[in-house]
């Protein structure tokens, strides 16, 4: 028990430091909060964070401003060195491009999004990570078939991209020495499926990772809660 407590304390301290670095990064990158604050609450071996109102908020109030330059999307992927991993004539879906972009930035110590990526969940509980035994426990749920299809598709593209990265390493390309594993690939896809927004960039809708905005809980129409809406204005998501 004493060892477990020490592990929990170390985990919470490390996360607190990462979160503090993220808030500094957000401020430096022009992310502005109005009448809201992000707080974390720590429990043993588990850390949660969320957005809380710090003042009364009226319908139509702007509570968060995020420059487009702070987001990760297809446009930033194409301006990244990792875009060179795609052989000429090869095609990846937007989601797979973004997953590759995220993993490249994750292993890049000098990434522009280093502090943001550091606070993303390290482990996810999506069904993509379920064992065959756990999936069978869902019995006749359509989720089983959907998960199996997604997993097969994810593995298919993982094998293709793993080959590209292997070739890149042979010529001392852009990827570096960090491993590229199937678990990493599942993680990146799950991050996108659970956190990405559709944001118009140059009038083109793009799946985007939006730092800070992804901490808001989803709107639940059954509970009549105020919905958080976003719009692009002056190159910022508001």
TrEMBL record:
<dbReference type="Pfam" id="PF00856">
    <property type="entry name" value="SET"/>
</dbReference>
<dbReference type="InterPro" id="IPR001214">
    <property type="entry name" value="SET_dom"/>
</dbReference>
<feature type="domain" description="SET">
    <location>
        <begin position="49"/>
        <end position="147"/>
    </location>
</feature>
<feature type="signal peptide">
    <location>
        <begin position="1"/>
        <end position="16"/>
    </location>
</feature>
<dbReference type="InterPro" id="IPR050600">
    <property type="entry name" value="SETD3_SETD6_MTase"/>
</dbReference>
<dbReference type="InterPro" id="IPR046341">
    <property type="entry name" value="SET_dom_sf"/>
</dbReference>
<keyword id="KW-0732">Signal</keyword>
<dbReference type="GO" id="GO:0016279">
    <property type="term" value="F:protein-lysine N-methyltransferase activity"/>
</dbReference>
<protein>
    <recommendedName>
        <fullName>SET domain-containing protein</fullName>
    </recommendedName>
</protein>
């Amino acid at each position: 028990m004493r060892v477990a407590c020490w592990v929990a304390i170390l985990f919470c301290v490390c996360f607190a430091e990462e979160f503090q670095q993220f808030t500094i990064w957000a401020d430096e990158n022009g992310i502005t909060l109005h009448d809201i604050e992000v707080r974390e609450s720590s429990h043993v071996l588990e850390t949660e964070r969320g957005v809380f109102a710090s003042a009364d908020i009226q319908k139509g109030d702007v509570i968060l401003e995020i420059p487009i330059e702070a987001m990760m999307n297809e446009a930033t992927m194409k301006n990244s060195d990792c875009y060179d991993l795609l052989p000429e004539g090869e095609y990846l879906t937007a989601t797979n491009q973004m997953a590759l972009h995220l993993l490249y930035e994750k292993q890049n110590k000098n990434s522009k999004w280093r502090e943001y990526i550091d606070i993303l969940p390290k482990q996810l509980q999506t069904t993509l990570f379920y064992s065959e035994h756990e999936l069978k426990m869902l019995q006749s749920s359509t989720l089983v078939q959907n998960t199996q299809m997604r997993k097969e598709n994810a593995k298919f593209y993982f094998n293709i991209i793993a080959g590209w990265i292997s070739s890149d390493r042979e010529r001392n390309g852009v990827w570096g020495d960090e491993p590229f594993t199937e678990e990493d690939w599942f993680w990146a896809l799950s991050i996108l499926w659970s956190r990405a927004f559709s944001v118009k960039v140059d009038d083109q809708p793009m799946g985007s990772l939006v730092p800070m905005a992804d901490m808001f809980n989803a709107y639940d129409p059954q509970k009549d809660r105020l919905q958080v809406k976003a719009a692009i204005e002056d190159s910022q998501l508001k």
